[in-house]
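chain below, 116 aa
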Amino acid sequence: MSRIEPIAVTLITEPGRLLALDGDTALLRLPANSGHGHEDGGQCIACAMRTDVRALLFDMLEGAKQGLRPAFSKVVVDASAVKDVSVVIAALTGKLPAQALRDHTVARMFYLAGAA
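prediction:
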C-alpha cells in the first residue's frame, strides 16, 4: 500500500492577492455573506455549508478520486471575501473540533502551507 502525500493548502486572505495557478492546483473560493439578513459570522445552515472549508475540501478530494474533477496536488483557498478568516485557519490547523468523519480525512490529507 503506497503512502499518499498530504496536500498543501495556501490561504489567500486579502483581495487581489490571488496567485497564478499551475495545472495541478485547485482553487476553492469561499463566499462572503450570502445576504440572508444576518451579519458575516452569523450562522444559518445555508451559509455554514457554503463556507465550511473542511466539507468543501473533502468534496474536492472525493470528486478527484471519482474522476468527477481533475486531480490536484495543491489547493489555493481564496478566503478574501470572508470577514473572519480565523475560523478558516482554525479549521485548517485542527483547532476546531471535528463535526463529521470527513473532518478527520481532511486533517490527514491537507495541511496549511501558508497564508497571503
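The radius of gyration is 14 Å. Residues 7-115 form one domain.
thats it, cya
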